[in-house]
Amino acid sequence: MGSANRPRFRGRDILAVGTLGGVGSFMRWMVGVALPKAWEPAAVAFVNLAGAFGLGVLAEWVLRDRTPESARRFLWYGTGFLGGLTTFSGFSGDALQLGPRAGIGYGVFSFVAGWLALRAGRRLVARAYGQPTAERKEERR
């Protein structure tokens, strides 16, 4: 997104990112509390995949809209809520607890599945709009 499309960020943006980041973090914590301790790696993986999918949906909408308001939405919900929801520290800690072999497998799975979830979110929005984004049109050339 070019600098001409970037909104001027204000105090409400700081407040929104902080608040939504807190909401996302709280939701991640609730998922962990709701499941038995043995399921912790699965809970972190689920939350991270849901966040990656949500980020894909959000990114596709922003790429299609390309307005200062869509950039602000990405800041609030992408950086704020989804940034709070997903967790690299939890993912890393779980990989360490699983041991070298299982930890590497968990890391590879999380990365690949997260990337696929992000792509699935973008494709969902692309299908809803019935047309590819400008970014994909340029990739095809």
Range of helix content: over 70%
The gross shape turns out to be globular
Poorly predicted sequence stretches spanning 5 or more consecutive residues: none
Main sheet attributes: strand count, strand direction, barrel closure: none
How far apart are the termini? 20 Å
Provide the structure class. mainly alpha
Keywords:
141 residues; mainly alpha; single chain; transport; sodium; globular
List the helices and strands and how they pair.
Blueprint (H helix, E strand, L loop, with lengths): L10 H24 L5 H26 L2 H18 L2 H11 L1 H30 L4 H7 L1
Helix pairs in contact: 1-3, 2-3, 2-4, 2-5, 4-5
Describe the 3D structure.
- There is one protein chain.
- The protein has 141 residues and is an all-alpha fold.
- It has one domain (10-140).
- It contains 6 helices and no strands.
- It has helices at 11-34, 40-65, 68-85, 88-98, 100-129, 134-140.
- Helix 2 (40-65) runs antiparallel to helix 4 and helix 2 packs parallel to helix 5.
- The longest helix has 30 residues, at 100-129.
- The chain is globular.
- The two termini are 20 Å apart.
- It is found in: Cell membrane.
- It catalyses: fluoride(in) = fluoride(out).
- InterPro entries: FluC.
- Belongs to the fluoride channel Fluc/FEX (TC 1.A.43) family.
- Na(+) binds at residues 83, 86.
